[in-house]
Amino acid sequence: MPTPPTSTATPGQEQRCKEFSLSYWNPYWMLPSDVCGMNCFWEAAFRYDMKTRPNEKMHLAVVACGERLEETVTMLKSALIFSIKPLHVHIFAEDQLHHSFKDRLASWSFLRRFDYSLYPITFPGDSAADWKKLFKPCASQRLFLPLILKEVDSLLYVDTDILFLRPVDDIWSLLKKFNSTQIAAMAPEHEEPRIGWYNRFARHPYYGRTGVNSGVMLMNMTRMRRKYFKNDMTTARLQWGDILLPLLKKYKLNITWGDQDLLNIMFFHNPESLFVFPCQWNYRPDHCIYGSNCREAEEEGVFILHGNRGVYHDDKQPAFRAVYEALRNCSLEDDSVRSLLKPLELELQKTVHTYCGKTYKIFIKQLTKSIRNRYDTPPKER
């Protein structure tokens, strides 16, 4: 048994540590002198983690086609306004949009915690035409991200019509909550089965009671690439790269929402592989159009806003549009972000004649906290 290390702790440290047993089977002499007691391994690991985690890079992916440039740039702006750790964005876009993306993002070069990569839209082999016309142009590109971004371990995929009202860091941290079998995380498609689409109309298997929505999808892609999936096409389990095309061929006449439906089918057969996060991480008009039905958002506010069905650009859901316009017109300067709330609240108050507008405070509850934490807290306290 090695000789116990001589304590170099100060009297205060000895007082803090004296009630904790210290096992000497492990050579603790390599640890800093102020690390003692209360499980030396975990305290040292925590101190190391605090030093290294701020440099951990998060990976965000988006697929943009057609008239989605402005919407995508606004989404990226909302991500950067609050994010703390460095963020690398993988942008998959039609060739004609690449120059515009480079022009718009060039002005953000001063942000040291942000960089991006641009990719063309690509689908495998002879089935490319089928994949491109599935649901919306380019939407099914997301299915191939684990196969294209082979060097990326984990990834947050979002649709272009997403707005972050809370740091990306917070949803990224959900990766640590995955158990050993979970490979991805999504929110339910509906909270209320009476208005659910999948449980009333789907002609294919779907996850859980009401299906899941793939507009916000957190992925451990290393696990996705390694996993062998149960399926209803063969008794053999198939890996991600082998299951997609057979799944499309079997169900392409029965699916309405394209790649989202395929994901629902996959996780129906492999429910142990999905981590389901609450609706406030993917808040859509369905959560308020017939009355509020996202309890978590009512309690804590909306974390991620999803303006599907084009509600950012028409008058059907003015509360959603008000938030989008506020962030679209906001610059990345601190003063611009700080002054965002009051005008936005005034605009939201004009929407109380709508169901979503009646609960307008949930749209700014978390946003207020995010701005205060990121911009009003002294740097040493952040």
From TrEMBL:
The keyword Glycosyltransferase is annotated on this UniProt entry: yes
Gene Ontology molecular function, alphabetical: UDP-D-xylose:beta-D-glucoside alpha-1,3-D-xylosyltransferase activity
Database matches in Pfam families: Glyco_transf_8
Sorted UniProt keywords: Glycoprotein, Glycosyltransferase, Membrane, Signal-anchor, Transferase, Transmembrane, Transmembrane helix
Record's function text: Glycosyltransferase which elongates the O-linked glucose attached to EGF-like repeats in the extracellular domain of Notch proteins by catalyzing the addition of xylose.
Coiled-coil intervals: none
Organism annotation: Mus caroli (Ryukyu mouse)
Bilayer topology: Single-pass type II membrane protein
Entry EC number(s): 2.4.2.42
Record flagged with keyword Cytoplasm: no
Catalysed transformations (reactions): 3-O-(beta-D-glucosyl)-L-seryl-[EGF-like domain protein] + UDP-alpha-D-xylose = 3-O-[alpha-D-xylosyl-(1->3)-beta-D-glucosyl]-L-seryl-[EGF-like domain protein] + UDP + H(+)
GO CC terms of this entry: membrane
Family to which the UniProt record says this protein belongs: Belongs to the glycosyltransferase 8 family.
Name of the protein this chain belongs to: Glucoside xylosyltransferase 1
Enzyme class: transferase
